[in-house]
Amino acid sequence: MEKEEIINKVALLLKEIPTSMDIVKDDSKRDARFQYLAAHMVEKAIKKDALIISKNEKGIAILFKTSKDDENFWKELPTQLGLLRNVTGFKNALKILKTQSYIKAQRPQEGEYLYCWFWGILSDARGADTQTGKEMKDEFYRQAEEYKIPLYAETRMRQNALVYQRFGFELFHEWQHPSGDTMYFLRYIPKSLKEGK
């Protein structure tokens, strides 16, 4: 699949996610803002070898192997300023930073882990029992087992939280998001880690 096609699909999927709906400035340039955000995400995923695409090309995920030490404010500053100007607008920025700070505090403060930054499946390939979802889940678990590290994700969509749990994630925290939604924090601990192998 061409990069441009991946970006278009991610932009389409972002328009269904409450968090991206909140952060993308609502003005006449909203579609272009979603495209910019999608391009940023896909470029970052490619650079960090974190992009996962299902065989039928209807499922896209970004799964980073990361740690708290990976966060570097100064290195990220030019990117953050671009997002501020082209996606969020300055008015939203402080609210977003505060929310992101709380969300990041729920992830491991020491050691490496996998973080599911994005996972979307086009509407015609959705459902907990579809091949696309199962295939992608299997790849997430394969990586968690290979690296012997936990896998973290969060969502504000209750249905998605239930799907994650059906796939074997545990719900370890719920939070009343400033939007009024509940945010669900989930993790998957690979068997090898649980058994201490």
- What value does the Rg take, in angstroms? 16 Å
Strand content: 15-25%
Reported for the largest beta sheet, the result is: 6 strands, mixed
Judging from the principal axes of the Cα atoms, what is the shape?
globular
Question: How is the quaternary structure best described?
Answer: single chain
Low-confidence stretches: none
Q: Quickly give the structural class.
A: alpha+beta
Secondary structure tally: strands: 6
**Helix segment tally:** 8
Q: Strand arrangement, largest sheet?
A: 1-2-3-4-6-5
Q: Report the span from N to C terminus.
A: 38 Å
**Topology pattern, helix = H, strand = E:** HHHEEHHEHEHEEH
> What portion of residues is helical?
40-55%
Mean pLDDT: 86
